[in-house]
Amino acid sequence: MLNKSSFEWLDFKWFTLETLQSFDWLSPFWLYALIGVPFLFLLKWLIFVRFRQKLEVAFPDKSLKSDFWTLLRHVPKVFFSLFLIFILLALARPQKTSEQPPERYTEGIEIMIVMDISESMQIEDLKPNRLEAAKTVANNFIKGRLQDRIGIVVFAGDAFSLAPLTTDYELLYGYLDEIDFRMIQKGGTAIGSAIGVGTNRMRESKTKSKVMILLTDGESNAGSLDPITATKLAYSYGVKIYTIGVGKEGKVPYRNRFGQVQYIDNALDETVMKQIAQFSLGKYFRATDNKSLEDIFSTIDKLERSEIKENKFTLTRDYYEIYLTWAFVFLMIWLALKNTFLISALED
């Protein structure tokens, strides 16, 4: 069935050598039979010469003159030859195959960024401070994702979901910009509650891969849910947790409410952070400066990539009907010529 135009076969490009060379032939052995077409007529002529009926008629030699019109008796043979040739071309099944642009789609993953916004995140061992450095890196991390649903949880003494899981990254950039220490008045670091809130957002999802990135600089000292219990609960829902401990050990610069810089002791409970990562089959990282924090998010980005699937399609079109149509036309012409003066009753 021709899928462009019913009159496409009328184009004389189908007769050109360039067009014939552009085809893929499904049954190319029929092309070798083309060589036999002239031999078929040669065989017919030999048989005709050997067995033809003869009618003896005496004509003077002067009256036997060659004439242009006598050549017309070969016209029917030409059309019958074309009929045979185009039948063989159709039997050889000319085709063209073109590769279509691949269809790509991703199996996205779900990522919950759980960010500590407690007072200690104002410490300036990361520039301009721990929280702003974390927001910048998280923003760049989101930019590198493709069709992943990402959400944000913030916590200090309490925890709440700031942004639900979404693929609207512009919305997430806005939420990140709004994150501030004053969002949660209750002091402390409720790591267990933060994991619980993040898990609650992801627990009903059917997505195969669920990831939580927990970023904090302190030890769990608030909230009603123990971090390890919360981690086991998260793992039961298929959530993997990457933990990031932010900040240097020892004396670190801290700017008080009056703008004065003081040096205070910094403590981070790495044991609990490592246990959270271990129980959830995640990984623990330590970020002591802006560069190391960027590298950590880059590593997580490589570890948790969406699966990109690609379907390739090839479109194959048959052209045998075009040559079959021409063969039928030549056959009809030949049959029509059989009833004219061009066919000799003695030869047919």
Overall description:
This protein is α/β, with parallel strands linked by helices. The chain has two domains: 102 residues, no CATH class; 197 residues, von Willebrand factor, type A domain (Rossmann fold). It contains eleven helices and eleven strands. The strands form three sheets. The protein has a six-stranded mixed beta sheet, sandwiched between helices. A three-stranded antiparallel beta sheet has the order 1-2-11. A two-stranded antiparallel ribbon has the order 8-9. Helix 5 links the parallel strand 3 and strand 4. Helix 5 runs antiparallel to helix 6. The two termini are 36 Å apart. The mean pLDDT is 83. This is Mg-chelatase subunit ChlD. It comes from Bernardetia litoralis (strain ATCC 23117 / DSM 6794 / NBRC 15988 / NCIMB 1366 / Fx l1 / Sio-4) (Flexibacter litoralis).
Question: At the first level of CATH, what is the class of the largest domain?
Answer: Alpha Beta
For the record, the count of structural domains works out to 2
Which topology of the largest domain does CATH recognise? Rossmann fold
Largest sheet: 6 strands, mixed
Q: Taking strands numbered 1, 2, ... along the chain, how are they ordered across the largest sheet?
A: 5-4-3-6-7-10
Cα-to-Cα separation, first versus last residue: 36 Å
CATH superfamily label of the largest domain: von Willebrand factor, type A domain
Q: Do you know the CATH architecture of the largest domain?
A: 3-Layer(aba) Sandwich
Beta strands, count: 11
SSE ordering: HEHHHEEHEEHHEHEEEHEHEH
Mean of pLDDT: 83
User: Could you state the oligomeric state of the chains shown?
Assistant: single chain
Strand content: 15-25%
Helix content: 25-40%
- Decide which structural class fits the backbone: alpha/beta
InterPro entries: UPF0353/GerABKA_families, vWA_BatA_type, VWF_A, vWFA_dom_sf
Organism: Bernardetia litoralis (strain ATCC 23117 / DSM 6794 / NBRC 15988 / NCIMB 1366 / Fx l1 / Sio-4)
Keywords: Cell membrane, Membrane, Transmembrane, Transmembrane helix
Transmembrane segments: 29-51, 71-92, 319-337
